[in-house]
Amino acid sequence: MKIETIREAAGRLAGHARRTPLLSSPFLDEIAGRRVLVKPECLQHTGSFKYRGARNTLAAMAPERRARGVIAFSSGNHAQGVALSAREFGVPAVIIMPSDAPALKIANTRALGAEVVLYDRASEDRDEIGARLAGARGLTLVRPFDEPLVIAGQGTVGLEIAEDAAALGLDAAAVLVPCGGGGLTSGIATALAAEAPGLRVHPVEPEGFDDVKRSLIAGEIQRNTRLSGSICDAIITPAPGDLTWPIIRRLCGAGIAVSEDEALMAMAAAFTRLKIVIEPGGAVALAAALYHGSEIEGEAVIAVASGGNVDAALFRMALERFG
Amino acid sequence: MKIETIREAAGRLAGHARRTPLLSSPFLDEIAGRRVLVKPECLQHTGSFKYRGARNTLAAMAPERRARGVIAFSSGNHAQGVALSAREFGVPAVIIMPSDAPALKIANTRALGAEVVLYDRASEDRDEIGARLAGARGLTLVRPFDEPLVIAGQGTVGLEIAEDAAALGLDAAAVLVPCGGGGLTSGIATALAAEAPGLRVHPVEPEGFDDVKRSLIAGEIQRNTRLSGSICDAIITPAPGDLTWPIIRRLCGAGIAVSEDEALMAMAAAFTRLKIVIEPGGAVALAAALYHGSEIEGEAVIAVASGGNVDAALFRMALERFG
Q1: Residues B184 and B307 both lie in one domain
Q2: Shortest alpha-carbon distance between residue B323 and chain A (Å)
Q3: Chain-wide mean pLDDT for chain B?
Q4: Is B276 within 8 Å of A112 when comparing Cβ atoms?
Q5: Which residues form the Tryptophan synthase beta chain-like PALP domain (chains A, B) (predicted)?
Q6: What is the mean pLDDT of residues A196-220?
Q7: Which of A39, A48, A50, A213 is catalytic?
Q8: pLDDT digits (tens, 9 = 90+) for B15-53
């Protein structure tokens, strides 16, 4: 990934993706024992950074190919990013979702104009359904992370962090990024290596799903043994991607794994101190900043809050336990 | 109030107050039946717009006078705005709060470095305590709304709205503003009259506390009969101010009154669709945009979400009932 590819993405996203700020609170600084800055991508269109990569991918497609439509597999944030981007270009989007996906996410994806195709996880083959539909209709697959245009789109988060950190006079900081397949992490790491080399990315994952942390220790790709059973569903993937892993290995510092309770505590802290709504998977970086200080070096930390698509019942539970 | 006074405030606040964006969601547009843009001042430092007026007032004071310190009466958002501003200038702040104010707000105000003086609402005279302390220590009173520098600071919200609306190509819209004493409303109205005359401000209040709406109908100041018993505590005041009322009468369109349930519904909608946390008093303008469309003209509405300092228990209740 070249920095120029991310700069091109920024050009395509200008006037479309929301330019998110860096938020802060003296109360968070006190908990962390250092300066804490939060990049609230929960405020991005569709409630997560995923819109950036999806919109960049569609914007870069040849118009004739794009006009035939796009297809994606997702039960969550990527689905909504692709659906909104397709609607903005006036082209069809087919999203293949498991039939047991949350009803609200299915409804939202449909409301954004996408055709939702449900499949049964136990008896049907998602990839076969996708390949058949794509072939029959000439749809282009938009991958969730292992795709250069997607990584470049997510990397624009890093360009904004570099710009805002410079304006604050910050030339050294740990940058904590919630990490699933690694699209956001590798994109930000590439942007910062070029624009703000004193800002070092650390991937953050939930305990029990820390494939990237273990891969960094082992020096080669490690896989998760489980793929469900976490409230941090937005960032649960089998392993880092073929494109994202070499970037992460080359540019990132050590990974950090946080507990589910720490993610819920970070959600409550963001509610009280920043007035933003974060989902569990989007809260792991802030959780690491607040509760894993001994694994971080330096006087400042920037935590990406990658998404806010959380059900009201789960959010209420976080506030009840930790608010 | 001259527009130059607000521009001077913007100069003093540059690099200190957070520049908040305009947020939107196609789902909110659908509820309202028109385009909805939200100005999230809940993301401002201390969780409300009050920081702008307080910081501007302290920044404009003569340094020798400021060094003796400031004093304010407040049980909520103004207290935190004054406390943080005073801490930034390294000067003392005394905040006089009722002893039955929420423990969290007292704790936050103290944590921001202010000296909190509690008084008993039933048996003690707040003004007498304030006058005595101010006289003995040479403290300067920072009024919550009826003060030109405070109005000018809040008016910078209007400058930002004008700038962002122009960038979106919006030259006509209703601008709905939560209204207590009228500092924010009159400041924004002054800024927009000069910078974006097609954007017309409408004050929004809770039912039963709609002194400004009734004042606009009567053409002279009307008072509230009650001063407590609303969850919208942040915007409950006896009547519009001597300075704010003439501005509101001259520049604002009709007032709108919303129910407490509508405010709670707007809080839940902002949680689900915008990923921001709003307090009931800060949600009344969004409530008017979503549920009082027949009282608004035009194809676009801009709602100011003025603050987010809400207790977790009340927020959970809003989500439980309407999330």
Answers
A1: yes
A2: 6
A3: 96
A4: no
A5: 15-307
A6: 98
A7: A50
A8: 999 999 999 999 999 999 999 999 999 999 999 999 999
A259 — contact with chain B (CB < 8 Å)? no
Question: Are residue B228 and residue B123 in the same domain, yes or no?
Answer: no
**Average pLDDT of A295-320?**
96
Predicted ipTM beyond 0.90:
yes
What domain range includes position B131? 51-141
CATH code (residue A167): 3.40.50.1100
Q: Is the CB of B23 less than 8 angstroms away from the CB of A21? A: no
Does residue A152 sit in the same domain as residue A232? yes
- Give the Cα separation of A288 and A185 in Å (integer): 15
DSSP state of B219: T
* Cβ neighbours, 10 Å, residue B256: 24
pLDDT digits (tens, 9 = 90+) for B262-289: 999 999 999 999 999 999 999 999 999 9
**Pair B55, B27 in one domain:** no
Window A:113-172, CB contacts with B under 8 Å? none
- Candidates A37, A275, A319, partner chain B, best to mutate (most B CBs within 10 A): A275
> A133 with A210, same domain?
no
Write down which residue in B141, B162, B181 finishes a domain. B141
B37 Cβ under 8 Å from any chain A Cβ: no
Same domain, B120 and B184: no
- Which positions in chain B touch A319 (Cβ < 8 Å)? 312, 315-316
Per-residue pLDDT tens over the stretch A36-84 = 999 999 999 999 999 999 999 999 999 999 999 999 998 789 999 999 9
Say how many domains are in chain B: 2
Helix (H, G, I), strand (E, B) or coil at A80: helix
> A26 vs B312: CB contact, 8 Å cut-off?
no
- Last residue of a domain, which of A125, A141, A157? A141
The answer to whether residues A260 and A163 belong to one domain is yes
Cβ of A16 under 8 Å from any chain B Cβ? no
Give the active site residue among B39, B48, B50, B105: B50
Give first-to-last CA distance, chain B, whole Å. Answer: 41
Nearest-CA residue of chain B relative to A271? Answer: B277
Statement to judge: residues A165 and A282 lie in one domain: yes
For residue B306, indicate whether it is catalytic.
yes
Helices (H), chain B: 3-13, 26-32, 50-60, 63-68, 77-89, 103-111, 126-137, 148-167, 183-195, 211-218, 244-251, 260-274, 280-291, 312-322
B55-103 pLDDT, tens digit per residue, is 999 999 999 999 999 999 987 899 999 999 999 999 999 999 988 887 8
Residue A141 vs residues A69, A87, B110, B303: alpha-carbon distances, Å = 9, 16, 55, 38
pLDDT per position as a tens digit, A228-241: 889 998 898 999 99
